Amino acid sequence: MSKNLQGQSVLVIGGKHRIGAGIAAAARIAGATVYIASHEPDASQIHLDLRDEESIASAAKHLGAVDHVVSTASLPHGVAIADLERQKTIDAFTAKVIGPLLVAKHFTITQSFVLFSGQVGWRPARGSVVTGVTNQAAASVALHLAAELAPVRVNAISPGIIDSGAWDAKGDAKSQFLQAAANRTLVGHTGEVADVVDTVMWLLSAGFVTGETIHLEGGRPQ
Asked: How many helices (H) does the chain have, and how many strands (E)?
């Protein structure tokens, strides 16, 4: 998907790896000046830790106004309720809810803000209560921030199973896992990084779309 972002700036929070890195690369190809923010930056990145408001404020002061912000940050805490840890639960909410709100507080965003939710927010199951609640909360953040920041557009993406590298740790079981996930979709396959990147790039210039959560899940029935 080709979009012209010439002369615009894009801040990608969590843009070092996988989907975030794909978004950053696509935005550069489209002509944007891209800033990558990470809680563990190197010399080429912006230090921004969503758990630390001071780092958010400092990054905002350093960069000034930006046209677009995309936050792919996630700190999932996928455990049974009996194993829930308070700080990890707070961190999960910070990555998806509190941190993006603080980014909206400190940054001057002139065009759009894209957040990441996830399909587990709409599919309750044992062992996923924190991940599910935080992902659905991210969609609520997009809805309410769209009203708060208008005319800046705020949207969220809810990806399904994406072959982004996140499942590589499954080893030999990965292909079986992905095939089972594909069988639950209407399109018969899982998503690729390019599917997510294309959707983000569309949202950066979709001038009549705000307050929405885009379910990028291959038509998997709710």
From this structure: 7, 9
